[in-house]
Each structure stands twice: as structure tokens, then as C-alpha cells.
Amino acid sequence: MTRAVPLGPRSLLALALVSAVGVVAFGWPFLAPPTSQVGTHTQDAPWLFAGLLVLLVAVVAAALAESGLGPKAVAMLGVLAATGAALRPIGAGTAGIEPMFFLMVLSGRVLGPGFGFVLGNVTMFASALLTGGVGPWMPFQMLAMGWFTMGAGLLPVPARARARTEVRLLAAYGFLAAFAYGTAMNMAGWPFMGALASGIAFDPHAGVPANLSRFLAYCLATSLGWDLGRALVTVVLTLTLGPALLRGLRRATRRAAFETQVTFEASER
Predict the structure, then answer these.
(1) In sequence order, what DSSP letters do the residues of 34-67 get, joined into one string?
(2) Which of 240, 238, 242, 221 is nearest to 230 (CA)?
(3) CA gap 182, 186 in Å, rounded
(4) CA nearest neighbour of 122 among 88, 171, 173, 172
(5) CA atoms within 13 A on the CB side of 201
(6) Which of 239, 244, 242, 197 is nearest to 222 (CA)?
């Protein structure tokens, strides 16, 4: 199967570093002991986000530099990222109507985890610029979408599996990953609620079980309907448009021949 951006050693190392930092950045409320003073440093969060964004850029740069990304792959990356960024505002303000997610699932499946991670990052960055959604939450969105799209490329679907089986598996993955994405983004913003909702806000002096209960209540109260809508839209679009789009993406990658090296012959004078 064609891999437009294969994951080489440097790419894997950078991705592992970013993922480790991302896990800490997302999950620090459950990692910090109740006796720590981390809850008094919420104003320092933008610096952590900025550092995470720098690491994300490093991962993308490492993937591009190591894989020798050619102009055809760059063109496909640009087209898919632009399409995803254009799809994101559709349904803005309407619970869960986010059609870009199914495109990320199918693209990651066809073009592999390396291309998927880069695509997820670039798409979220482009959509933030398009919608004016630039802020300290953007690095988290980029990382979460990178994981989301990369995961589709890591699915253990046999290359010769029936198209219907593959589409169903991708729909199931999209359903679960849509909830995972929403939960991750909830976790990114939940600690900074302060006293806006004391019953479900993060309590730096409480233990993990108490904060986990608060976080679950926060997810149920604020985003369950939106996450469910996103998951259902992803499933419906994957089942209905998935087979045709998978064929189109695979045809495009074969014609682009990403792995074919371009050579130039010296002209005689």
C-alpha cells in the first residue's frame, strides 16, 4: 500500500516525544498529586501550549525531511487539508455536524499513519486560520486530530479485505475516535474552568477518583450531545460516501506514484 509520508526513525522519535508531551499536557490533572501546587499555575498554560506547538512543527518537519516528500504528495496534502478546512465550518453551531472527520478517517486509511498525522495537523491549523479559531487550544486540536487521522492508518485491516468490511471497520473507528477526540479536547479545557461550575470543575486538592467523577460529569453536561452528533455524522458519511472516496483516493495515489523517484537526464550540448 502506498505511503505518501512513511514514518522513519527520526519521525517516529519526534512523534513519540510529541505524543508523550501531549499525554502529559492533556492528562496532567490526573497525574499531579493533590499536594502539588500545579493548580496555582493555570496562567502558565499558554507557554505549555506554545511549546507543544513547536514540537508539533518539529514532527511535521522531521516527517517531511526524512521521507523526501515529493511535489505530488505535497499537492495531495494541500488539497485534502484545504478540503477538510473548508468542511469544518459546515454546521458550525449545529451539534455534531462536522463532516471533516470522515475525510480524515478515509485519508489516513489510504495514505498511512505518517501522512495521516501530518494531514490532521495541517488541516486543523488551516481551519483555525479560516475560522479565526487561533488560540491556546489550537495546538491541542492539532495534536488530537493528528492522532485521530494517524489511528485510521494503523488499523489492522487486511489489504485484500472486502470493501464492505473495510468501510464498516472505518465507520466503527470513526464513531469511537469521534468520542475520543471530544473527550481529549474536554480534558484540555476542563482544568481552566475555575469556579464557573464548582460541582464539575477541576479541584487541584482532590484525589484522582474525585476529579475523574467531576470530569465525567463535565463531559455529560457539556459535550455528550455534540460528541454523539459528530460520531453519528462520521458513521453515516463513511458508510454512504466511503466506498467511492476510498476508490478515488487509491486511484489518485496510484497515479501520483509517490514512491517513484523522479530523475533527470543530463542534456547533451
Answers:
(1) TTSSGGGGGGGHHHHHHHHHHHHHHHHHHHHHHH
(2) 238
(3) 6
(4) 88
(5) 11
(6) 197
Sole residue written with cell 550540448: 269
Distance CA 174, CA 170 (A): 6
Residues 6+ positions from 255 with CB-CB distance below 8 Å: none
- Cell readout for 136 is 491556546
| The total number of residues written for the chain in this structure | 269
Tens-place pLDDT, residues 121-148: 889 988 888 876 777 778 888 889 999 9
Do the Cβ atoms of 103 and 242 come closer than 8 Å?
Answer: no
Vertex 167: Cα angle to 162 and 173 (nearest 5): 130
Amino acid letter, residue 113: P
- CB-based contact 111:153 (threshold 8 Å): yes
Instruction: At 257, list the grid cell.
Output: 506514484
Question: Are 130 and 262 spatial neighbours (Cβ–Cβ below 8 Å)?
Answer: no
DSSP states of 101-120: HHHHHHHHHHHHHHHHHHHH
d(CA 256, CA 248): 12
Q: Round to whole Å and give the CA distance between 146 and 155.
A: 15
d(CA 63, CA 43): 32
The C-alpha torsion from 101 through 74 and 56 to 219, rounded to 10°, is 0
Q: Look up the pTM and report it.
A: 0.83
CA dist 110 and 250 (Å) reads 6
Report pLDDT digits (tens) over 198-252. 678 877 777 888 888 889 998 998 888 889 989 999 999 999 999 999 999 988 8
The three three-digit cell numbers of residue 202, written as one number: 477541576
